[in-house]
Amino acid sequence: MTRRALITGITGQDGGYLAERLLADGTEVVGTVRRADGALERGGLAQLAGRVALLEAELGDADALRRAVDEAQPDEIYHLAAPTFVPDSWRDPRSVVEAIAGATGTILGAALERDGTRVLVVTSSEIFGDAGVSPQAEGAPMRPRSPYGVAKLAAHGLVGTLRSHHDRFFVSAITFNHESPRRPERFLPRKVSRGVARIARGLEDELTLGDQRAVRDWSHAADVVDGMVLALRHDEPGDYVLASGEPRTVGDLVDAAFAAAGVDRHVAAADGSTRDRVRVDPRFVRPPEQWPPVGDPSRAREVLGWRPRVTFEELVAEMVRADLALLDAAS
Ligand SMILES: C[C@H]1O[C@H](OP(=O)(O)OP(=O)(O)OC[C@H]2O[C@@H](n3cnc4c(=O)[nH]c(N)nc43)[C@H](O)[C@@H]2O)[C@@H](O)[C@@H](O)C1=O
């Protein structure tokens, strides 16, 4: 029998890679979107047209989410849809908790009504926050530092409690930062790849960023969705950190992007000094983390046999190449 998967948020960065991954192994794919008309084209996923079915469901609309589960009759649910830009969560904490924890509760509740439907919920390294330890494995203390992290921790908690109470195959994928040329530009790596590409083509002179000492653990989104599939299809349900395990600073990422574009980050100024093409704008600076969000992916490696294939340098180079190609195609 053909396996059927429901992906919430199919037009997001991860949704697109996951749909391609599942279609490639013969899984039928149904995805939720806010508005079906032209959704794949708007999401840069025209290649999926005719290959996936779309259902409309806003995260705040519990009835629509339940209907989507009923209509899709999925064997697997990948719950990806969520507001993802962390700074936004400070402005409207209630809506972020509703959209993340509320929708997770709805999806898990709907899955409980169906025999055997497995669910993977994407949570986040933001659940660890002031963990008191770095790198973080699945058992590290969880002390989130943002409303986004609190909401993701509630989602993570719902997965674990409902899994053990109802003895169901519910999984939390604790994803650390993951990127690709499909990442929206307000996230750092795409902002950098696009900015450096524009500098390389002479369209801009400078890149304006926040704190370059901030540490992150970056992987390629295509690798991370592979980990999700392995986790959901394993013999036993469990939670997994999906991360590279390698700490890098924002500055490392900027340097890698300039190197990939073949552009000097530092240029000679008229007075003979050197000028950095990267300028700090306090608007983009966030309070520093005492315990950097770096993952310990040992469990995913040992239990699932998962490891990221794309290196940090390859990821950044792919993003810069893609942004250069976009600029060249538009000119
Ligand atoms: C795991 C987690 O991953 C993502 O959240 P994020 O880490 O907040 O992602 P980002 O790309 O916005 O920031 C990365 C770092 O870069 C620093 N940074 C410096 N200068 C700029 C700057 O100019 N813009 C931005 N956006 N960040 C900057 C910023 O302060 C931070 O230290 C989401 O997918 C989230 O959904 C998620 O779950």
UniProtKB/TrEMBL annotation:
Keyword Transmembrane in record: no
Assigned keywords, A-Z: Lyase
Catalytic activity, EC: 4.2.1.47
Gene3D superfamilies membership: NAD(P)-binding Rossmann-like Domain (3.40.50.720), UDP-galactose 4-epimerase, domain 1 (3.90.25.10)
Domain NAD(P)-binding: 6-319
Essential cofactor(s): NADP(+)
Listed CDD domains: GDP_MD_SDR_e
One Pfam family it belongs to: GDP_Man_Dehyd
The UniProt record lists the keyword Lyase: yes
Protein family per UniProt: Belongs to the NAD(P)-dependent epimerase/dehydratase family. GDP-mannose 4,6-dehydratase subfamily.
Protein name: GDP-mannose 4,6-dehydratase
